[in-house]
Amino acid sequence: MAEGGFHEFVRELFEGLGPVQIKRMFGGAGGYADGVMFLLLGDNTIYIKADDALKAELAEVGSGPFVWEPRSGPRAGEKVDLGYWRLPESALDDPDEAVEWGRKALAVAKAKAAAKPKKKKSNRA
Hints:
Elements lengths: L2 H11 L7 E5 L2 E6 L2 E7 L2 E5 L2 H9 L4 E4 L11 E7 L8 H21 L10
Antiparallel strand pairs: 1-2, 2-3, 3-4, 4-6, 5-6
């Protein structure tokens, strides 16, 4: 599936959540709703943001993590778990199921964003 077609498929699959924006990044893209990234798209595969509880649910249905392996830099060759797990296959043909997983992933992403310390604004004049 061409990238544009895949991105449109993802927006339609998750439209029950409201508007989903797709932004390109590195070799893939991120899916955003309510200002937070809750999807990672790469190689025509959808990954959802997951915490430990959601990872356990996803593992029960045969899903697995997205693992990034940098080719260069200080972490070259290291396997890095970015906290995104593959959307279950059954959800690809069932928008209601996809939205159910998407809601859980969005809640995880929002909780993680809320837990991050706010950046201080510089007082430079």
